[in-house]
Amino acid sequence: MYPLKLIIKQIEGSIGMHLNEMAELVIHTKNNNSQAFTLLFENTYQKLYYLSLSMLKNTQGAKEALQEVYIKVLGDINTLDDPKSFMVWSHKIAYDVCNEKLDKRSEINNSDDYQVLNNQMKTEKERAMMRIIDSLPIELKSPLVFKYYVRLKDKEISEIMGCSEDIIKSSLVSARSKIKSEMSQKYKTISFFGITQFQLITKALYASSLQHSFNSGTALQILTKSLVANQLASAVNFTPVSVQSPPLMSMGQVIGIGSVALLITSTATITLYAAYNKLPEFVNVSFTSEYTTSPIQVSAELTQIHHIQEFYAVSKTHQEYYGTLINETTYLVDVPDNGDYILYAITDNKKEVTAAITVTSIDDDLPVVKNYIIENKELKIYLEDITSGIDYSSIYALKADDTKVLPIRTNIETSEIIFDFPDSTFNLYVSDLAGNISKHRVEVV
């Protein structure tokens, strides 16, 4: 006889390949895998170090803070319920550790090595920008670092800093306004509108982090001490990671012009507006209609009539996403969520032309199990994915001994998969067409 019921519960999920890989490393680290933790360390230590340095303004203090951070990260990793939130979680730990040190200012050596390294930056504009950023109070400076260097969303920043998303948005506006004011006074011939300001802030932060990155010996020492402090094997393969070049767009990674055609597979229907005939006009707006877990890259081609000073997309919630110019007439901008957006092209004489777009192909929802029934010694599981749909060809189960089990039948019309009734507990893996993966434990009770 088989039991009258099962327990089916989602135990894991990941959105996209990058988050899936990070989540897998977290899971293996929870199982005391030293090499998995090493890979997590390699992918985060430069950013966490620069965050610590930007808050403490002292290299030795930042290195000591980073050591505390990774000991705590490894020691507390079993408390992290959502593996894909590791980046936000680890940055919150670093932010809290540095704040504790700031509360004990007398214990910090206030040497000026941080400022000396700033003076080694390549251009005067970068140095001027960093001096302004460094002069900002911590509640304004930290959101800038999280937004433009770590590349986090406003909601994620609010979770780290323990305040509302509205406060983060207000802080970013205040910080950018102060930077714009002071830089415009110093360089009166340069306009500091959205995209120009964004690029200068990002470039300055990355240039500063490059100057302050520490050598592989120091990084290995911090890694080793973290492993030893948590009683894990310290003989690992460590590959030093250098600071990457700054991204050129507001979100995501810049691509070459030759790659654009590979990403743009359909043209969106757009509504065009023009204030008068002499304004530039949108010739074509296009973006992929294929489901993806990543931000959608929008390509906008305009007539070259006026010099365009800034280009950005605005969501219904008034969130702005700035674009970048890739040739004389074409801008690229990434939008992170489904919904309606207005594209703005602002000319040098402060005129604007706009285009309305609707994005519907971003899928950041995991497949779920809606129901199940036991019938004729078969287990029928009903699935749901509200955006891209279930990828039935990829569904499988793993028993405790890693034996792979496939459904004996599927019914796409009813979103149903059928297994022979299990004789023991197994894990069910379900993917959708965008690449999101959910994992469910099927327990025989």
Task: Write a structural description.
With about 450 residues, this protein is α+β, with helices and mostly antiparallel strands. It has three domains: about 5-10 and about 365-445, Immunoglobulin-like (Sandwich); about 30-230, no CATH class; about 255-360, Immunoglobulin-like, CATH 2.60.40. The protein has 13 helices and 18 strands. Helix 4 (about 60-75) packs across helix 5 (about 85-100).
| Contiguous runs where pLDDT drops below 50 for at least 5 residues | 1-5, 12-17, 116-120, 189-195, 245-277
Question: What is the overall pLDDT average?
Answer: 79
Overall, the morphology is flat
Rounded to the nearest angstrom, the distance between the terminal CA atoms is 12 Å
Instruction: Describe the sheet with the most strands.
Output: 5 strands, antiparallel
Total domain units? 3
Helix content: 25-40%
> Rounded to an integer, what's the Rg over CA atoms?
25 Å
Content of β-strand: 15-25%
Number of beta-strand segments? 18
Task: Give me a quick take on this structure.
By secondary structure, the protein is of the alpha+beta class.
Summarize the SSE layout with pairings.
Layout: E1 6-14, H1 16-30, H2 34-42, H3 45-56, H4 59-76, H5 86-102, H6 113-118, H7 124-135, H8 138-150, H9 154-161, H10 165-186, H11 194-212, H12 216-229, H13 260-263, E2 271-272, E3 282-286, E4 296-302, E5 308-315, E6 320-322, E7 324-325, E8 330-335, E9 339-347, E10 352-359, E11 368-375, E12 378-384, E13 396-399, E14 404-405, E15 409-411, E16 416-420, E17 426-431, E18 437-444
Antiparallel strand pairs: 1-18, 2-10, 3-4, 4-8, 5-6, 5-9, 7-8, 9-10, 11-12, 12-16, 13-14, 13-17, 15-16, 17-18
Helix pairs in contact: 1-2, 3-4, 3-5, 3-8, 4-5, 4-12, 5-9, 7-10, 7-11, 8-10, 8-11, 9-10
